[in-house]
DNA sequence: TAAGCAATAT
DNA sequence: AATATTGCTT
């Protein structure tokens, strides 16, 4: 039912994935290169973040994904991450020996799609193509939905239960109501296409990353749903969607913050939140034991 | 008017 | 469980 799996010419897809590896430690560089090649990826390595940035700028479309160490002499891995996110929108995986929550948090906040802890094994690398794949799926979805924006907006405003003329007074409910003529793709029989029903936004990793990117671009203290929405440039999103997500995001961050404070001793607790703790539910693997307040 | 927050609804 | 909506406050 979903597309994506039916990619026709992408039979060999995961193979040949173009990976750029950045690490100042030549040993790790070698190891990673070897492992990645074993996964039949196409590997480029470099030991400087600035060098990586040059490579990426040189051929904007020459790589599919970046794996970067966090600690590097010439440039902070986070800085690199930031540049990549802003300039070419590639998935970036961060890696580090340091699994401290605040660092992981920083990586996440800056838009890393994954955060791997060294030592890294094949196990972790075999599946990294998923980030590229996910991105492609959603690019397709974005384009598709672009044609339907108006219809979606129609539905949003039309099927509201505020028909009784209460909320409609605010004349800024866009020009949706005006256009009833052109775009004769569908007849105006008021048959709301059932395939586009509930329109609940699902915050995929990609969408979330876009969100995070926007937040960082604005600055953490100045953010508001409106600004984020504008920066994200995702046509079908509403301000309310973003507001809701922002609210959740903040809760999530403060939760991490708390855990981070409470920690510091104990043992080596959990060590990574790379995969699981992220997608729709950034965080919370245990039940809800947090003060409802 | 935009935003945040918490409760509550879907 | 995740997201939407609402009502109240700033």
From TrEMBL:
The modification 4-aspartylphosphate is found at residue 69. One of its GO terms (biological process) is regulation of seed growth. GO terms for molecular function: DNA binding; DNA-binding transcription factor activity. It is found in: Nucleus. Keywords: Activator, Cytokinin signaling pathway, DNA-binding, Nucleus, Phosphoprotein, Transcription, Transcription regulation, Two-component regulatory system. Residues 18-133 form the Response regulatory domain. SMART domains: REC. PROSITE patterns: RESPONSE_REGULATORY (PS50110). Residues 272-293 are annotated as: Disordered. GO terms for cellular component: nucleus. Belongs to the ARR family. Type-B subfamily. PANTHER family: TWO-COMPONENT RESPONSE REGULATOR (PTHR43874), TWO-COMPONENT RESPONSE REGULATOR ARR11 (PTHR43874:SF137). Binds the target DNA as a monomer. This is Response regulatory domain-containing protein. It comes from Liquidambar formosana. The lineage of its organism: Eukaryota, Viridiplantae, Streptophyta, Embryophyta, Tracheophyta.
């Amino acid at each position: 039912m979903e597309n994506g799996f039916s990619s026709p010419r992408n039979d060999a897809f995961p193979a040949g994935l173009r990976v750029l590896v950045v690490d100042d430690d030549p040993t790790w560089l070698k190891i990673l290169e070897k492992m990645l090649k074993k996964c039949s990826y196409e590997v480029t390595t470099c030991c400087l973040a600035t060098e990586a940035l040059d490579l990426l700028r040189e051929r904007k479309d020459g790589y599919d994904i970046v794996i970067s160490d966090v600690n590097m002499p010439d440039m902070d891995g986070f800085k690199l991450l930031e540049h990549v996110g802003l300039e070419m929108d590639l998935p970036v995986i961060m890696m580090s020996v340091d699994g401290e929550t605040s660092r992981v948090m920083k990586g996440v906040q800056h838009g890393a799609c994954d955060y791997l802890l060294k030592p890294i094994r094949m196990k972790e690398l075999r599946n990294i193509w998923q980030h590229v794949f996910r991105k492609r799926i959603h690019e397709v979805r974005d384009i598709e939905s672009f044609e339907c924006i108006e219809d979606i907006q129609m539905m949003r405003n039309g099927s509201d239960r505020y028909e009784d003329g209460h909320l409609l007074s605010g004349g800024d409910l866009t020009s949706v109501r005006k256009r009833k003529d052109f775009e004769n793709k569908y007849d105006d029989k008021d048959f709301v296409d059932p395939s586009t029903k509930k329109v609940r936004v699902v915050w995929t990793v990609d969408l979330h990353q876009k969100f995070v990117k926007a937040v960082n671009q604005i600055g953490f203290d100045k953010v508001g749903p409106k600004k984020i929405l504008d920066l994200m440039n995702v046509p079908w999103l509403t301000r309310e969607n973003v507001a809701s997500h922002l609210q959740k995001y903040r809760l999530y961050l403060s939760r991490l913050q708390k855990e981070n404070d409470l920690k510091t001793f104990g043992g080596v607790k959990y060590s990574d939140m790379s995969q699981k703790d992220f997608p729709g539910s950034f965080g919370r693997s245990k039940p809800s034991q947090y003060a409802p307040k």
